[in-house]
Specification:
- The complex is a heterodimer of chains A (114) and B (116).
- Chain A is mainly β.
- Helix content of chain A is 0%, strand content 53%.
- In chain A, the strands form 2 sheets. In chain A, strands 2, 4, 5, 6, 9, 10 and 11 form a 7-stranded mixed beta sheet that branches. In chain A, strands 1-3-8-7 form a 4-stranded antiparallel beta sheet, with no helix packed on it.
- The N and C termini of chain A lie far apart (37 Å).
- In chain B, 0% of the residues lie in helices and 53% in strands.
- Chain B is globular, with a radius of gyration of 14 Å.
- The chains are: A mainly beta (114), B mainly beta (116).
């Protein structure tokens, strides 16, 4: 079974630009969550999507948004990029609400904002 | 609010030594899951184990073992006879079962280095 895939793997953007990251979950998983990992703040939950609806949200500004498509693929968008948005963005998928709730992570997208 | 504390920032041991990674958590939820993940240099978080708040039975899987003690809010992880391939950053995480158990709260991680 293929794992979680994320594209692109690396990205360099300029402050003020916007960026869209993509995540394809494991086949059969309908929940997709996004996390930001930085050296200073560690791993922080951004949001979760299930059945094309945002179900949970972390404490991030409105510049961070996402969506999920009918095939469970998800995209995350960051507008008006700031230097502090430089991070590894990890996507995870799971069987939500089941007896197997663990999330399986993709390799991440490393975003550098200059 | 939930909080996970991994007090050990870095641990370095020689191969074949046993090593224990500590994890202490705080939560007001009565039902929750606890997890351990491993992050090798490649960056991908690898799921190791899940425990729910109802199940305090400890588990052993090969060289890995986990000790969950609800009374002390701890969920420690021991690697027996460590190997160089065990070198990675290890994260302990917590999520309440309510709301679908998808909002993981991570500790800061413990960087484990196994020296040959």
């Amino acid at each position: 079974k293929a794992g979680v895939t994320q594209t692109p793997r690396y990205l360099i953007k300029t402050r003020g630009q916007q960026v869209t990251l993509s995540c394809s979950p494991i086949s059969g998983h309908r929940s997709v969550s996004w996390y930001q990992q930085t050296p200073g703040q560690g791993l922080q939950f951004l949001f979760e999507y299930f059945s094309e609806t945002q179900r949970n949200k972390g404490n991030f500004p409105g510049r961070f948004s996402g969506r999920q498509f009918s095939n469970s693929r998800s995209e995350m968008n960051v507008s008006t990029l700031e230097l502090g948005d430089s991070a590894l963005y990890l996507c995870a998928s799971s069987f939500r609400g089941s007896k197997v709730p663990e999330q399986y992570f993709g390799p991440g997208t490393r975003l550098t904002v200059t | 609010a939930q909080k996970v504390t991994q007090a050990q920032t870095e641990i370095s041991v020689v191969e074949k030594e046993d090593v224990t990674l500590d994890c202490v958590y705080e939560t007001r939820d009565t039902t929750y899951y606890l997890f351990w993940y491993k992050q090798p240099p490649s960056g991908e978080l690898v799921f190791l184990i899940r425990r729910n708040s109802f199940d305090e039975q400890n588990e052993i899987s090969g060289r890995y073992s986990w000790n969950f003690q609800k009374s002390t809010s701890s969920f420690n992880f021991t690697i027996t006879a460590s190997q160089v391939v065990d070198s990675a950053v290890y994260f302990c995480a917590l999520t309440p079962i309510i709301q679908g158990a998808q909002k993981l709260v991570f500790g800061q991680g413990t960087r484990l280095t196994i020296n040959p």
